[in-house]
Amino acid sequence: MSDLSDVSRITPLPALPERGPVTQGPPRPPPLAVPGREPGGAHGPLALPLGLLRTARPRQWVKNVLVGAAPAAAGEPLSRGGFAQLGLIFVLFTAAASAVYLVNDARDAEADRAHPVKCRRPVAAGQVPVPVAYAAGALLAVATTFAAAVLCNGLTAALLCAYIVMQLAYCVSLKHVLVVDLTVVTTGFLMRAMIGGVALDIPLSRWFLITAGFGALFMVGAKRYSEAVQMEGDGRTRALLSEYTTGYLRFVWQLAAGVAVLAYCLWAMENSGPPDTGLLPWRQLSMVPFILSILRYAVFADRGTAGAPEDVILGDRALAVIGVGWIAMYGLAVAQL
Q: What is the pTM of this model?
């Protein structure tokens, strides 16, 4: 009988091979974009209409309230027909801007698919086929210009057509030209502010045009500056942003802010009626909330977080309060004209 206590006589079992980490195999490729279906999104008969609506950028429509800027600046009371005409102008300009967005997304679909955020756009994701986006944009552009010619005056239709042509040229080539890209976007905002006066045959004052133009350049410059700051050193940034320096873009929005404030103050300091009316100088007092709004918006610009102006305007409570105060004072000032 063998001595089991002698462990030296026990033959050891062969060592098992060391196991490495469990792998799941090669990574799966991302799902292919299928027309009519957005990965992770809605699909079915409503996918295409909803995709077209999303491509029209509903969040950007708030910018088109600027069509009422000229009538408000003139201080002329509007009849019921005037308000209806202004509402029509808002709809037409929204349709024109949506047509440009559709064409722009169709043209940039391939590049947007490689972008971490823009790849979710309906055209890039395959929810809206590229030919459909082109066709919808072209149809909307023609219908908008025709409707403006029939329902408004010829000058309104010409201004709206010029806006569409200029924005399409921007999508094709002008957005790649230094300084010209800033000018085109700024002019688009200025056209929004002008078209209400053009449609209602309201004269546009020099102070209104200067303040509106440089106010728009302030926001555009702040937007570009924020994009440059957030994407600095990122290879995915648009090529043109890499040609601008953050110092130059900061100079642009600071210069524009200064000119806008100066033009508004010169308007406010003009004589506006008899000095013995006994009323508060609302025209001069309106400078305070106007300057405060510029300073408040400049906080976001300086931080590099003004890349989405609509989010800043709609999302900052202090800016909203200042804006309400300015509207009240400005309305009282215009009523004295």
A: 0.78
